[in-house]
Amino acid sequence: MIRTPGWTSACAVALRSRRAFALVLPSCWLVLVVAWQLGCPLAGEDGMGLRVATCLAFLVAVVWLANGVRVTAERELRRIRHIAEVAQRVLLRPLPPRLDGIALAAGQLSVSRGASIGGDLYEAMSTPHGVRVVMGDVRGHGLAAIGAVAAVLGSFREAAHDEPRLDGLLRRLDRALARHLRERCRAEHPASGGGEPDSPLAEEFVTVLLLEIRPDGEVYALNCGHPWPYRLCRGAEQLAPGDPLPPLGPFALPAELTPLHCTRLLPGEALCLHTDGAEDARDGAGRFFALREALADASRGSPVAPADVVDRVRRAVLHHTRGRLSDDVALLVLRNDRVRVPAQQTSGEAAGVHR
């Protein structure tokens, strides 16, 4: 259904009228009681019954008004939360349980109270070039980092299908982030008159890990300052195929970008991508969260269950920190469910066997 501006305005007027009606009636009743108490001759009499009746009427008016304010505020808060949850699901949308033979699950914890997302980002997409995955972490945390999250995720969702190579995809993300930072800098420095600001937001950056899981299970990556993933197979082993590049934002990408070969993900094996908020989480005594041990404990079953690993590690982080996070946390687990198909015999070979 197409909603015209007139229809939207009518809905807004009706909503405001309903809110006003919920408060006007008790307010009028309270004014009437006060006017009676102050102006009516009968209110000055010494009769105990009349005084009790006036006090009860006043009390009913106050309770009615307070309840109307409370109910209206709760209804408005539920409406705002619903809108925020819808917007957050669109930005950091839930991942499907399977993508092109890859089982996956993801979860996150936000520092900002009431927000389900923060400065961490992730996405996985099935493309003609394989299953491509991005995991990133915007400098800072909470709601202030959502603009950069939207810029990087929007670019990835478009470019993952178009770019045949990972280096081209990474350059697209870098350009999208640069545009976002320029626009934000113009908005924060209007004295530039709409031109290029003298000092861009040099302190803003995003760590990014790009993965490409090819049909044969080979995994290639480009890493810009992000933690390397863990391989889950009879324990947890962190991959380290090479030195990461600097984060996106403050530095230009090098002229030559060569994706690194991470590993070959065999059927039943899994990878766990994470942000540094998981490893940097501390308890009251300042001890860091043991992510590797938690992953090894959560992936003891065979085969590894991605949703179970995410859930158990999230609960372990909350238990370790007693719910007092200092940074956003994101986890993404991918398991290779592709089955090796044995080579098929040709009709000639089959005939030779029967001879």
Explain this structure:
This protein is of the alpha+beta class and 355 residues long. The protein folds into two domains: 5-87; 95-336, 4-Layer Sandwich (Phosphatase 2c, domain 1), CATH 3.60.40.10. It has eight helices and eleven strands.
Please outline what is shown here.
With 355 residues, the chain is α+β, with helices and mostly antiparallel strands. The protein is 44% helix and 19% strand.
Strand order of the largest sheet: 1-2-11-10-7-8
By CATH, the architecture of the largest domain is named 4-Layer Sandwich
The fourth-level CATH homologous superfamily of the largest domain is PPM-type phosphatase domain
In DSSP terms (H or I, runs of 4 or more residues), the helix count works out at 8
Distance between the termini: 69 Å
Give the strand content: 15-25%
Question: How large, in whole angstroms, is the Cα Rg?
Answer: 30 Å
Give the secondary structure arrangement, pairings included.
Blueprint: H1 5-39, H2 48-91, E1 98-99, E2 102-109, E3 120-127, E4 130-138, H3 146-162, H4 166-188, E5 206-213, E6 218-224, E7 230-232, E8 236-238, E9 260-264, E10 270-274, H5 276-280, H6 291-298, H7 306-321, E11 329-336, H8 347-354
Antiparallel strand pairs: 1-2, 2-11, 3-4, 4-5, 5-6, 6-9, 7-8, 7-10, 10-11
Summary keywords:
disordered N terminus, 355 residues, 6-stranded antiparallel sheet, 11 strands, elongated, disordered C terminus, alpha+beta, Phosphatase 2c, domain 1
